[in-house]
Amino acid sequence: MADGLSLIPASVLRNLADKLYEKRKNAALEIEGIVKQLALAGEHEKISAVINLLTVDFACSPQANQRKGGLIGLAAATVGLAAEAAQHLEQIVPPVLNSFTDHDGRVRYYACEALYNIAKVVRGDFIFFFNKIFDALCKLSADADPNVQSAAHLLDRLIKDIVTESDQFSIEEFIPLLRERMNVLNPYVRQFLVGWITVLDSVPDIDMLGFLPDFLDGLFNMLSDSSHEIRQQADSALSEFLQEIKNSPNVDYGRMAEILVQRAGSSDEFTRLTAITWINEFVKLGGEQLVPYYADILGAILPCISDKEEKIRVVARETNEELRAIRADPADGFNIDAILSIARRELTSEWEATRIEALHWISALLARYRSEVISYLNHTFDSLLNALSDSSNEVVLLALEVHACIAEDNKNFWRLVGLLVRNFQNDRVLLERRGALIVRRLCVLLDAERVYRQFSLNLEQEEDLDFASVMVQALNLILLTSSELAELRGLVKLSLVQSSGQDLFVSLYSSWCHSPMATISLCLLAQAYNHASSVIQSLREEDINAKFLVQLDKLIRLLETPIFAYLRLQLLEPGKYTWLLKTLYGLLMMLPQQSAAFKILRTRLKTVPSYSCIEQLKGTSSENPYSQILQFSEDNRNRYAANVANVYNAIDFPSRLQQFEQMQHKHRMHSKSKLQSRNSTPSIASQVCGNKYIGRITPSFPSPRDYATSQIMEQSETAKTMISIEEEQLFADMALLTDLIKLNLSDYTEKIIAEYIWVGGSGVDLRSKARTLSGPVTDPSQLPKWNYDGSSTGQAPGEDSEVILYPQAIFKDPFRKGNNILVMCDCYTPQGEPIPTNKRHNAAKIFSNPAVAAEEAWFGIEQEYTLLQKDVKWPIGWPIGGYPGPQGPYYCSAGADKAFGRDVVDAHYKACLYAGIDISGINGEVMPGQWEFQVGPCVGISAGDQLWVARYVLERITEMAGVVLSLDPKPIQGDWNGAGAHTNYSTKSMRSDGGYGVIKEAIEKLGRRHKEHIAAYGEGNERRLTGRHETADIDTFVWGVANRGASIRVGRDTEKSGKGYFEDRRPASNMDPYVVTSMIAETTILWKPT
């Protein structure tokens, strides 16, 4: 073999190892010439010797300068070889690649330079070493030396050009290397990798899409990189791939779906959005390939429906709808059990929207694959039952719909009612808070009669007698009060004239016997007044306890409602309804005389025509007790008489009375057993609980209640008397409480009560507390400042929680009346600085500005609001979970089927007038259950004071009425009007001659500051200002004359007279009047456009 040393002059070799670059470069040029001559002569063996010399003695030398010379020499040899270089690449390339890991940065730099020159010469022949070169470049891209990074970048660009030109590149061999590198965290390496993916994807002959599952996860991982540039590059690459997927007929959706599902749960917002967007496209495009992955996809979508980012929520909802619309066949791999498992899991999500969609899925599966879903019911039923305890009414209503769908067949219906009874038994809070909603909705969904019959059947045999009594009382109250059960009540009323009513009466009676008052109520509803009287007469002294009297109190109040209007009308004919009179007098005799219920019933009975009452009551035992039900003409009387007799005999009231007495005997024995059990293990705690007043316990002697309890077991009449006296006193105390609430202090003392009111931490809620003052007050300056715990209202930190109340405006108190007052306050720190939620302070500064004060700004605010049912947060007058007829008949309407809540509205109207608020009117709104009141005209800051106090008065009245006030600008989504607070505005200049020009100038200013005003006009206003339902689009400012679809409306009278006012229709119902009024004044009077 030839010797390389003999082929290259010694001087050249010395210069090649010199520290000066120029000498090494000149030496390299000499080597290039030598190799070129050898190549022309075909001396490839000698060329190999030269390359070996450059490798061993130079490139691998311990001396840095020699290594640098070796690298430049190898590049020169390649240039000298030119077209014949390919056959020597296996000798030339490895030492250069090894130099990429050299500890000397300059050596690594020259290695990049050498490989660059080699690549330029050999081009496509270089592909053989691609994976090794790629691996080396991957590391160099993150090199600590910026010069090396720059050199590597240049080399990388050249290699990319070579690869895109080559037909020898093997993507199959490259992908494993790429997959291995995709999880690196170094930002330079990530940029390098994304760059290569993008380049390779641009080559038509390279199918990167087919290998996308191998590196897709890595690209998604880069979306959460701290570098914006890397995130942008990864997003760009993913967007390009997604577009290719849309246009490609052959895509491996399955493998990628698994990756996307994982990434949809990322903590990074952008990654979640991208993943859910991909899933959305996959659901549209994937077809049968995705069927086995539907459960996993659903598991990713449902949590995203409640994402904090709106864009993610929107895409997730769309994807969810797309997925649910697909009708897959279990034979194609559609796993119903897996889908149910996901839905079941998401029923426990902390987010309401996710729980709702999980229920929609169960409902959809039931509709399509009922038999399969029913077969998996054992795994799902408990979760669905737990959903009935959900804090969200919408979740509960949906869960009930699912339960109703499951319960279409008798077996599952029986199971549902049985489990509901057990749930109510185990969770009394559920019965108290959700029982009415659950029963009422089930009656709508499953037929009320069927539901009540089954409940009655279950409760008839209930061993827990205390629970049975409570449950029956609840069912009875629902039956008597719910609008959804009107037909069922109608059927019960026919118990004495129709066999269907008779069957229902008998069915309910068997369990209603658990509660005397429920039994009496049922008889009153069925007009079985003779039997009601018999039930009352059968009661024993121990039956008439505090619980009984509470239930009786409720019944007496119910007798005054429209439900029992027929009964009150029957009292106009005491001759026909003598047993009704006897029943009512029997109830009256059981009530303590000081109770409110006694007074109500006594007042009602006083209205009964007095003629022949006593005689009729005496003669009740001799007449047919049920002939009173037949209110027919003489011609019809004979026709129905036989039917009545048959029904009366079929009901067999004597047997029913015996059934009632037997059940009550069980309850008495049960109560006695409990008392014996408690007394067998006496404790201080039990003595304490037995006392009415804990502070009066004398440990040495039993309390009066304990003594009475012990005597009951011995059937002592004295003890029974003591209990009844105590319970009567309880009701007397309740009546006294009512009297004290209504007490007018002005007749007894000079002192007054001042209710201090302020705006809470949300900016919408109102808070208040009361204090005693020595005498009447006429001006806020006479009132003392006060303080409260701001940490409990979200207005101060716990470590410095004191917030100071500054009295600002006084109003008469319509609740306590007399000289008592309501005080509107604003809030300050102890240092005298307004707290962030104090919007009045800044408004007062604007209105006190001389320019604003001179204009005497008038405001009239139209406050719209919605009244909601307390337990379900659904508008009053609306069926639970359903909707009334379309909008149209409700605006300014009258009638029980159109105007809902007028009592509350009128009470508020009068209370505001009493308080001294300038309330100018009320009206029913377009959406049923929605109303409006108007405050004004008010000058300046007083508009805000008066509207806030008017809102407070309304909150208090709805509190007493048991309904909920909502200021949500769009309480019901869909084709229903929202709620605003249209603000009418006029200044002195606008009210003067030529004022129309001033109005137009003011409107132009408001238009130029539209965005600033919208931002301050209330939360959630974007849901209301849609361009529909008498609103302008939130992003568009437009004004017009008499145009209720505009941002600003000018009245016809104003246009005609050339002066007046305009109406800003943009403020939401939950707006802060201090903010809105002061901002309008500032913009139209103080702001000077540039």
Topology at a glance:
Elements: H1 4-7, H2 10-16, H3 21-40, H4 44-59, H5 64-81, H6 89-98, H7 105-122, H8 130-140, H9 146-165, H10 171-181, H11 187-202, H12 212-222, H13 228-247, H14 253-263, H15 269-285, H16 294-304, H17 310-325, H18 336-346, H19 352-368, H20 370-375, H21 377-387, H22 393-406, H23 410-426, H24 428-446, H25 448-460, H26 465-481, H27 486-493, H28 499-512, H29 516-526, H30 529-538, H31 546-558, H32 565-570, H33 578-590, H34 596-606, H35 613-618, H36 634-651, H37 653-680, H38 684-690, H39 704-712, H40 717-742, E1 752-759, E2 766-773, E3 786-789, E4 802-812, E5 821-828, H41 840-847, H42 850-855, E6 858-869, H43 902-915, E7 919-924, E8 930-939, H44 942-961, E9 963-966, E10 981-986, H45 988-991, H46 995-1008, H47 1010-1016, E11 1039-1041, E12 1048-1050, H48 1052-1057, E13 1062-1064, H49 1073-1086
Parallel strand pairs: 1-5, 11-12
Antiparallel strand pairs: 1-2, 3-4, 4-5, 6-8, 6-9, 6-10, 7-8, 10-13, 12-13
Helix pairs in contact: 2-3, 3-5, 4-5, 4-6, 5-6, 5-7, 7-9, 8-9, 8-10, 11-13, 12-13, 12-14, 14-15, 14-16, 15-17, 16-17, 16-18, 18-19, 18-21, 19-22, 22-24, 23-24, 23-25, 24-25, 24-26, 25-26, 25-28, 26-29, 28-29, 29-30, 29-31, 30-33, 30-37, 31-34, 33-34, 39-40, 41-49, 43-44, 44-49, 46-49
What is this structure, in a nutshell?
By secondary structure, this protein is α+β, with helices and mostly antiparallel strands.
Provide the structure class.
Answer: alpha+beta
Distance between the termini: 90 Å
Total DSSP E strands: 13
Multimerization status: single chain
Beta-strand percentage range: 5-15%
| Sequence stretches where pLDDT stays below 50 over 5 or more residues | 619-644, 681-728
Overall outline = elongated
Helix content: 55-70%
HEAT repeats: 92-127
Protein name: Glutamine synthetase
GO molecular function: ATP binding; glutamine synthetase activity
Organism: Musa troglodytarum
